[in-house]
């Protein structure tokens, strides 16, 4: 017979307590020996953001990679967020022909204007129009000064090189575009070529919150990964190595979830998706990809392009506008900047309480009606560049190591 009372009494016996202690001590010694042989188990290996007491990752500052809906909300309570992004220089042409025409007057279900994200690179960029995008409530993010070709340069870039490229650009945008430094929170690597840990080291050191350069496939409707933090080593596959392997607490990865064609061709930038010329067919293609998110786990829907995608084929611009018109008919869809997406993930809020979640942006007064048109020399190759800005023109074209353009080192007289 083995009753509860006997167990209780046995545990209470001083002899048994000593026995237990001896056992625990033995286990501890064995464990220490094992650790000595195989290396300490790294608690950072496994990210756990479950509800359990042992969870090591909690919102708002930590989230594990995966398809689970933030805050455990029911899918019908989740706003479908749509991320419209544009890469490279803001120019007169793409500003007048596209951005201004399609992004300045549309509204979300909360009555606020929609917001897109612009990954700006320096060369040929128009700082007056970049400021105008910001003034209208769009997000400005970093895409390097030089955007130079040669993937090795980006893959092997040191923290110092990345600082020159991305923080140098942040300084140029702050100086000549008058964008507040703390409004520039995110980045995308040119050619989506990250430099592994160096990229996230640079971000951590300089308070950049998120990166959106890392493509991922997603065949499985409902299993789309949501943005997550790099507190733990990411299990996301790495199609463009090197990817980060270290731990970078609080730095967010916004996975570039691929679009997919009917014949399973994947594309993370829509510009590289299979060519379709017919406007109705383009719209169907866009909607099909949108619905994989909307009818799935509502992970933010990426629509990532260069303005050149429009200029190469007007049918695309028409289809894009028709798609945005379609979204405006859906009461649970919000077109927001990437930083706004992360704001929601950090504070998951059900649709019924979304009215005041993202405060409407108040458009500041336009104080720059007559920008300066600067004719400048790019120092490293002697070529002419033009730059529009509402502040005084620099001496030379701003560049790496010279973001204010105030250190002329070469004379071309
Ligand atoms: Zn680019």
Which key phrases capture this entry?
413 residues; alpha/beta; TIM Barrel; 5-stranded parallel beta sheet; 15 strands; disordered N terminus; binds zinc ion
- Envelope shape: globular
**Total domain modules:** 2
- The separation of the N and C termini measures 104 Å
Largest sheet: 5 strands, parallel
Mean pLDDT: 89
Strand content: 5-15%
**Can you say what the CATH homologous superfamily of the largest domain is?**
Glycoside hydrolase/deacetylase
Which stretches are low in confidence, meaning pLDDT under 50 for 5 or more residues running? 1-20, 24-41
Q: Percent range for helical residues?
A: 25-40%
Using the CA coordinates, give the radius of gyration: 26 Å
Count of alpha/pi helices: 11
Secondary-structure-based class equals alpha/beta
Bound ligand species? zinc ion
Oligomeric state of the chains in view: single chain
Order of helices and strands: HHEHEHEHHEHEEEEEEEHEHHEHEE
Overall CATH class of the largest domain = Alpha Beta
